[in-house]
């Protein structure tokens, strides 16, 4: 009986040592790759944060710049007026480099679409500010490999959605401002200002930003599908390996039982001879 318990203990220790060895090998082989992926994800998140900050700076600058357009009526003679305007402000140039700003300073009056364009641009800036917040969370999760408030994929999808909405609002803002044309009734000629062209450049930049984020989402989806297939394949092989180990253990146990029976028979015979 002491021999049986010692054999069973050795088999169990051998079986546990085999599984612990496999787990140790798996851990040592995956940790370097996991750390490398974490470092790459952190660098990518830092780059995305920088791009997000640049986007909100560009959009905010375009929204806050007062000179969305210029107006002038050169054919008015001594009553000629020059100035600039935007969604929030209208100013007329005076002599000696002075300006006069406010409502009713000029006979030129912007259309309502200009004010609505300013609202759309301000909304785009707000969405981009939220996008920067998500980029900060994404960087924190990529650096720590832990969930921070929301999941990593949710943050990435949210960034794409916010960037898409911000781009749409920027396009709406530029389109609405383009409705402001020459005021022929009062002989005013309108030209586009710096803020309008900044808005156009921002739209081009944000389009590229959205396209890049969508490509990342596609790659992430493909990688997840590949990882799931790899996990299923690995699980299948592990199950087969465990079944082989169990079969080998059962065969070893049967052989040990047969040896024990033979030893018991021999012992019985020996005791019978003594008696």
From TrEMBL:
UniProt superkingdom: Eukaryota
Gene3D superfamilies named in the record: 1.20.140.150
UniProt keyword annotation of Nuclease present: no
Location of the region described as Disordered in the Swiss-Prot/TrEMBL record: 1-37, 243-275
TM spans (from-to): 40-62, 112-137, 149-179
Basic residues bias spans: 12-22
UniProt keyword terms in alphabetical order: Membrane, Transmembrane, Transmembrane helix
Compositionally biased region (Acidic residues): 243-269
Keyword Transmembrane: yes
Protein name (record): Uncharacterized protein
Annotated organism of origin: Vespula pensylvanica
